[in-house]
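To illustrate the input format used throughout this study, we show a single complete record. The first block contains the structure-token representation of the backbone; no residue identities are included at this stage. The design step must infer an amino acid for every position from geometry alone.
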């Protein structure tokens, strides 16, 4: 059976899009987000970016990361978001679609970080839900990938909780900014699994109490 490639023109993928969830809004990346990201993360850099393979220590690191995000978007490789908590309007993190592969109808969700005070509040679940919904229901992807450092048990557990399946480990996959050689664990959700994953995520989000952060 021949599978049709993802029939989405390049500009339809990389043009800014806003994804609205119950508690978060994923806004298109802007250059001024560099300062907002720094303000959200500066007091917890070691915690937030412990498992990121590149250095995130200074405001300049955030500006370089945003410039890189815009370069990837121009090449049609990524769509980068600022994560905004809807009730407060606060920028609390970032996430993205990355490694976009239209020919094989595949995309990765990654480069996700959330300020510690907003972790374990339902923010990540809501953000993943709206991104998965967009990938499967708008882009008609066959597969959504997620990956993490093999040592990052917290992230591994969170990915499993949203309904992804662990596929395996790429050994000695990356050299991190500290010189440590990282093994990377890959996960995926398939289009045929999306209906069940969606139902479970909707149940999880319905049970979450309203976020009351200042």
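Output of the design step:
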């Amino acid at each position: 059976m021949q599978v049709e490639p993802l029939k989405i023109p390049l500009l339809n993928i990389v043009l800014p899009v806003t994804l609205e969830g119950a508690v978060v809004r994923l806004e298109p990346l802007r250059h001024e987000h560099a300062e907002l990201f720094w303000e959200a993360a500066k007091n917890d850099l070691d915690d937030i970016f412990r498992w990121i393979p590149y250095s995130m220590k200074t405001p300049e690191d955030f500006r370089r990361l945003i410039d890189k995000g815009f370069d990837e978007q121009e090449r049609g490789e990524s769509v980068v978001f600022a994560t905004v908590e809807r009730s407060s309007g606060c920028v609390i993190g970032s996430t993205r679609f990355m490694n976009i592969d239209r020919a094989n109808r595949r995309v990765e969700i990654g480069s996700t970080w959330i300020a510690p005070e907003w972790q374990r509040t339902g923010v990540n679940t809501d953000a993943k839900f709206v991104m998965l919904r967009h990938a499967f229901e708008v882009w008609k992807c066959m597969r959504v990938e997620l990956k993490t450092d093999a040592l990052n048990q917290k992230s591994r557990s969170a990915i499993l909780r949203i309904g992804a399946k662990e596929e395996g480990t790429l050994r000695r996959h990356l050299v991190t900014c500290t010189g440590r050689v990282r093994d990377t664990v890959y996960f995926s959700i398939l289009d045929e699994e999306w209906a069940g994953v969606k139902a479970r995520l909707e149940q999880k989000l319905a049970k979450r109490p309203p976020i009351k952060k200042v």
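Structural context for interpreting the output: The first strand starts at residue 19 and ends at 20. Confidence is low (pLDDT under 50) at residues 5-12.
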